[in-house]
Design a protein that fits this description.
The chain is built from five helices and eight strands. It has about 150 residues and is of the alpha/beta class. The strands form two sheets. A five-stranded mixed β-sheet has the order 3-5-4-7-8, sandwiched between helices. The protein has a three-stranded antiparallel β-sheet with strand order 1-2-6, covered by helices on one side. Helix 3 crosses helix 4. The model has no long low-confidence stretch (mean pLDDT about 90).
Length: about 150
């Protein structure tokens, strides 16, 4: 659990060399961040991938705010806020650059984080996601369901 600001705590699964500074002499592996989709938490979404990549990468798996154990007392609910929280949490963990992998909503957060914090992103891999949820995309989806906003 990383308090990124008063009232906002992000739950991260992180490598032991990140949380235990006495092992900092170990070889530095590239950072790999998995961001989960809507309705999941990080480890439920990425457990098997995390295990598969852990030997060659420093794997970080956060819970987005309002999912899993990540919480805030702020009222903001935007993709920008999620991207800001992820960036602050990774910086607090000492991550300077990373490859980001996002699924669905996590992909939208990943795209936004790359836009807002390009210095933190080495590369981005996204699956099942739009770059942003615009009003026109939202309205088109509602229309396909026979609904209106």
């Amino acid at each position: 659990m990383i308090e990124i600001e008063p009232g906002t705590v992000i739950n991260f699964w992180a490598p032991t060399e990140t949380t235990n500074r006495s092992t900092s002499k170990q070889r530095k592996k590239p950072a790999l961040v998995f961001i989960h989709g809507f309705g999941f938490d990080g480890i439920l979404n990425w457990q098997f991938q995390s295990l598969a990549f852990a030997e060659d990468y420093s794997v970080y798996v956060p819970d987005l705010v309002f999912f899993g154990c990540s919480i805030t007392d702020r009222t903001e609910r935007s993709v920008e806020f999620q991207a800001e929280c992820m960036a602050k949490g990774l910086r607090k963990l000492g991550v300077e650059k990373c490859t980001l992998v996002g699924l669905s909503y996590g992909g939208m957060v990943g795209f936004k984080r790359a836009e807002m914090y390009p210095d933190l992103v080495e590369s981005t891999v996204v699956s099942c996601s739009a770059m942003a949820m615009t009003e026109s995309i939202s309205n088109a989806g509602l229309q396909r369901l026979g609904l209106s906003n």
